[in-house]
Each structure stands twice: as C-alpha cells, then as structure tokens.
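Cross-check.
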Amino acid sequence: MTVVWFSLPAILLAFIVLFERERLSETDLRFLALIIALAIAGRILFAGIPNVQPATALLLLLSAYRGPLQGSVAGAFVAVLSSFFLGTGTFVIFQAFAFAFVCLGVSLIPWKRRRFPLALYGLAAGYLYGWVSNIGFLALTGFSVGGFISLLVTGVFFDTLHGLSNLFFIYALHPIFLRIMRSADSIEGKE
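Predicted model, tokenized:
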C-alpha cells in the first residue's frame, strides 16, 4: 500500500502541473473559483445528510463544459478546502483522487453536455466515488479482497444516496450552470 501513498499525490500533482500549462483568462479563473466555492459551500451546507450534496454535480458539470482536467483540479481543491470545515485526515487525499477520477470519466460520456446523459453518469459517479474512497480506507487499515467487498456491500446505501443526489443536482443545476457559464463567456467575449 506504500505505492498508493506515493502514487495518488503524484497523480494529483501531475494534474495540477498540466492545469498550470493551460492558458486560462482571468474570467475563466474567476468562473472556476466560483464553481469551487459553490461546491465547497454545498458540501458544507448538506453535511448533515450523508452523501447528499451538490459538489460532485457541480464538478461534473464543470468537467463536461470546461474539460475534465479543470474538473479534476477543482475536485482536488474542493476535497482539501472543505476538509478544513468538515474534518481533515489522511482520507482527504483519497477523496481528492475520487473527485479527480469521476471528473476524468466525464470525457468517456457520449453527449456529455446534454442534461440527461450527464445526470445518468452522475448516478454512476456516486458509486465510482465511493469505490475509490473505499480503496483509501483499505489502504489505511490493511488491504484485503474480502475487506474491499465488505466495504462495497456496506457502502451501497451511501453510494446510492450520492448517485441519486448527483442525478438530481445535475438535472436541477444544468440550466443554471449554463446561464452562469454563458454570462462569464459573454464578459470575456467568447460568444
């Protein structure tokens, strides 16, 4: 499991290095900061309801419209910065990686900018996020196949809540996200 401890931060660092090479305007950076702030606020506001929060939905929308690299880096920031309010620990690196993983997965979706296909991926992303986070838990406690299967089975309820909330929030926030993005793009003169 030592490999996991060194490879995940290295992968996240590689995402950040690639992100730094992108040429983003000041307006793009403001838009990205707004989405990160909204995701953090949503994660904190919904903390009392296990696995129900709009953060993943916002990150998936960002990934669909601005690219999975922006979504992955934003996801890492959301995990780390929200942990200052929700509790921090070694598991945060796995949450950051789980956000990055599901954001990268957006690139595999046909018609990713359409509301319904993205919302369906959001449902699946609830499970993917949980599974990647479970690997982190097992890395901390000692990995075993039986332990991983046990975590998958016991986590089904919470992963289902996460997936259903993603489906709901993507479907509800999609038109609002588009309006905010188009407003930011019109300020920049991209339309």
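The two ends are 48 Å apart (CA to CA). The helical segments are 2-21, 26-45, 55-66, 68-86, 92-105, 115-141, 145-188. Passed to J.P. for a second look.
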